[in-house]
Amino acid sequence: MHRNRVVVAAPDPQGRRNLRERLTQLGYLVVGEASDGKEALHGTFQTQPDLVVFHTELPAYQGLDVAAIIEEHRVASLLFVARRAADVLHLAKNLWVYAYLVEPFGDEELATAVEVALANFHKVTALEQENKKLKKDLAARKVVERAKGLLMQRRGWSEKESYRYLQKLSMDRSVPLSQVAHEVIRMFEEEKLAVDF
User: Fold this and answer.
1) Structure pTM?
2) Which fold has domain 5-105?
């Protein structure tokens, strides 16, 4: 069974030890600890954890800037621990807040916050992947439309005939439709260059 890997980043040694012990008792694997922003950044990129439990008062490199770097690269989910709820409001304006805790908190609250942070992180990364796929699909569709338009214009074919031609080339050569479309566009551009010269 996969145990979620965690880095604990907090300025106070006693606070780090306490979090490490509680997380371990709850079944998580603590793979690193950090007392400042530099250590947190280094430890996170080195160990590639599932989650960083990040105290909002972490010193060096402006702790929250480090959190922003970790978040930007989507290395791990972030669970913020704050002394006051107001600290979390400030965070929410600048970063994705997957989950947070305000001290003091119990083990049940800690376990719930960890699972919420992990679940929200997975949702965000899944949405980003879907967004990338949609952008790629849209770009491919635009290329196919352009190639189809050139075939209609230069060969005098209907839209249906142009699309079937691209489709047949794609199937005959076992390559994606967008790749065939790129080649057709390139062919017409080279023809145009030859005519211009």
Assistant:
1) 0.68
2) Rossmann fold (3.40.50)
